[in-house]
Amino acid sequence: MPRGSAASVFLGVDVGTGSARAGLFDEKGKLLGSASSPIQIWKEKDCIEQSSTDIWHAVCAAVKSACSLANVAPEDVAGLGFAATCSLVAVDADGSPVSVSLSGDTRRNIIVWMDHRAVNQAERINATNSPVLQYCGGGVSPEMQAPKLLWMKENLQESWSMVCRWMDLSDWLAYRATGDDTRSLCTTVCKWTYLGHAHMEQWKESDSRDMEACGWDNVFWEEIGLGDLVEGNCAKIGRSVAFPGHPLGSGLTPTAAKELGLLPGTPVGTSLIDAHAGGVGVMESVSDAGSKAVSDEDAICHRMVLVCGTSTCHMAVSKNRLFIPGVWGPFWSAMVPEFWLTEGGQSATGALLDYIIENHVASPLLSNHAASQSISIFELLNKMLLSMSHEQNSPFLSALTQDTHVLPDFHGNRSPVADPKSKGVIYGLTLDTSEKHLALLYLATVQGIAYGTRHIVEHCNAHGHKIDTLLACGGLAKNSVYIQEHADITGCPIILPRENESVLLGAAVLGAVAGKKFLGVRDAMKALNAAGKVVNPSSDPRVKKYHDAKYQIFRSLYEQQLSHRSTMAQALQ
């Protein structure tokens, strides 16, 4: 395909929970321009749904806007990649939407990643103790696809019989763009119980091709009541798989190219889940001082990436498989090809901070003050905390919350206790309704989230990891207090990438690999990742002592909850 210029541009598309975004990057990983377009979401109790038609329209709008803003011509785009939430898409034989909603609304053909309708199904699947469960921390989460599929079969039989393809959202986007329904090792391994290491002996990333899907455990699917999904060589859930970045089909179809404003045949890489794209977009962002370590195979295994958005994913890789109770994985080649991925996570972080702020009586007043100063609510809260620290002669900012403790499990605990029934706790409430009280509650919540990260890091290291450095990306990584608290609480330096749009960059890496500009994903990561600021933990021993004490209280809040749960269960027998 002819190129308009010698320099190549790589396009990354990311579909998050609330918007579709597109970003264009040059050959050094520098962002040239980005744009976003909102997407619709329906929420009814535990059921959270979206529309693939709506999402595709938003993707097209974002891509066209990004190309216009970056002044990039279609012929300059050397490749594109998709990343998305791990939401479940249902389409029929024609690729048309099939409803996943009790409402019967045919637009609503996506069960969103955070949907918790299938808690009961997850419990029943875990009770089978199938061998495949050891590769997802000992049990599936209701946020994974097998429980959602079982819920669909049990509750929406008519839709179940109509579906021709069940797809992860990022795989569906690539399929919609290319007509190739090859699935990604990222999505299938992380969310569908596919055993990617079935390919470990036969294939390396350099062999890039569609691989026959030999990693499905048919016995597992039959055992949980979904044996019909393995009929026809598992056609409904994936007959073939490929490494992330593998070029799909013949690139963009003429129809998709027209809709996106790009050229037919533009290479499209096999996709990634959005958090995993964040890992690819940031994990090699080491400072110049650490550049020697980049060539060291072991160095990447000392890092954990925090992809901080609505939720937070904690991604670490290892050369050997590490089984860690309550933490998803080990997943072979699900993020960095030929490395094993460990994936921890917190189901509500950005969403929790929004909830805490928006449900406080002082929230409207705070919003008005932030708007009058032309700053974000988070920036205003951070400024208030600094002033409060000075006013109260606090030894350090974190000490403001000595009487307020938060267990952030408002949407369950994904890792490391893997308890979707865990509830959030706020300890230390008073009748205070002031903006200052909201600032304290905000800080205590940030700390609770950071203690959760410390728990995950310690748990992973106790089971064989060697994590000593964190890298952070996503919306919350722009929040200075959020990052400093995480550094102080975990005791790890935190590297922030030069380009904060790491998920878009990770998606663009897939396009660069598909366009044959790099030998593989890791080579592209080394070329396109770049470090920005490094945030170090406080050197004040009082800060460490304080957080060690609060961390013990944090841990006890869950233990108390278990005890209370047991007491009440016995009372109702």
UniProtKB/TrEMBL annotation:
Hey, what's the signal peptide range on this chain? none
GO BP, one example?
Answer: carbohydrate metabolic process
Reading the lineage from the top rank, the first entry is Eukaryota
Which InterPro entries does the entry mention? ATPase_NBD (IPR043129), Carb_kinase_FGGY (IPR000577), FGGY_C (IPR018485), FGGY_N (IPR018484), FGGY_RbtK-like (IPR006003)
Q: Which family does it belong to?
A: Belongs to the FGGY kinase family.
Among SUPFAM superfamilies, the record links this protein to: Actin-like ATPase domain
Which Pfam families does the UniProt entry name for this protein? FGGY_C (PF02782), FGGY_N (PF00370)
Task: Provide the Carbohydrate kinase FGGY C-terminal domain boundaries.
Answer: 305-514
Tagged with keyword Nucleotide-binding:
no
UniProtKB keywords:
Kinase, Transferase
GO molecular function terms attached to this record: kinase activity; phosphotransferase activity, alcohol group as acceptor
Segments forming domain Carbohydrate kinase FGGY N-terminal: 10-280
Name of this protein:
FGGY carbohydrate kinase domain-containing protein
